[in-house]
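Appendix B. Raw example, untouched.
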Amino acid sequence: MKLWLWNLGWVVLMVAWFGPLPQLAQTSFAAHMTLHMAVVAIAAPLLSIGAAGLRYDPVKLFPNGFAPVPASVGELLIVWAWHAPGLHHFARHTTIGFVIEQSMFLAAGVWVWISAFGGEQPRTQARSGAGVIGLLLTSMHMTLLGALLTMSPRLLYSHHHVGAGLDPITDQHLGGAVMLVVGGAAFLAGGLWLTRDLVHSTVLETQKQT
C-alpha cells in the first residue's frame, strides 16, 4: 500500500507539473490554484504517507526538524508569501520564479504531512496529537486565505487580463474557492484521521491499565 501511495504521488506531481496547468496558470488564477492544490493537498500527502515509517523517513532521522506545529507555521509563511501579488507575478512570468515557487510548495506540503504522519510506527500519542494540531492549523489558514481570495471585491493579480477565459475577478474568486474547498478539506481530513488514531490508541491504553 505504501509503495502504491508513493508511486501515485509522483504520478500526480508529474501530471500537475508537466500537464497543461503550468501554461494555463500564466493567465488564470483558478488554474494556478488547481496546480497549487494538486501539489500540496494531493501529491504531498500521498508521498508523505507512502514514506512514513520507512527507512528513509526524515522524521526518524531528524525528529527535531519535523515537529508538526512549527511545520504548519512554516507552511503558512511560504503559502501566504507566494500569494502576495509581487511574488505571485514573479512566479507566473518567469521560469525561475515558477520553479522556486513550486519547489517551495512541495517542500512545505511534505514538511507538514510527513511531520504529522511520519516517525516510528505506530505513532506515539504525543506525535499523533501534535499532528492533529498541525494539520488542523494548516486547514484553518488554507480556508482563511481561500475565503479572502473568494470574497475580495478587487482584482489582486493583473496578469489575468489576457486569455483566462473568465472575467478576471470571477477567475480570482474561483481560484479562492478551489483553495477553500480542496486545501481546507484535505488538511482537515488528515487531522480527523489522526484524531481517530489518537482516540483508538487512548482507548487501548486505558483498557491495558484497567
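End of appendix B.
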